[in-house]
Specification:
single chain; 76 residues; alpha+beta; three-stranded antiparallel beta sheet; 3 helices; globular; Transcriptional regulator
């Protein structure tokens, strides 16, 4: 059974502005997982978000040869 996390929780853990988060969701930026709607509430699969964050951090690290851009782990 998959673990669902609220959209706002994902945004807070990514530590990005709401407008940026909404753009990522709408444009599916860099493979962002699709949201899951239950009624009007929006959720994400925790494992899919964790994989997306890990892939983005790895790509960022490779590009800059430095530390990833402050992305907090979802499973904290």
């Amino acid at each position: 059974m998959r673990q669902l996390i609220k959209s706002e929780t994902v945004r807070e853990r990514l530590d990005i502005p709401k407008a940026t988060f909404e753009r990522h969701v709408k444009q599916r930026t860099q493979g962002m997982p699709a949201p899951i709607y239950i009624g009007r509430a929006r959720f994400f699969d925790a494992a899919e978000i964790e994989a997306w964050v890990t892939n983005r951090a790895a790509a960022s690290s490779k590009e800059s040869r430095g530390e990833a851009l402050g992305v907090k782990p979802i499973s904290a």
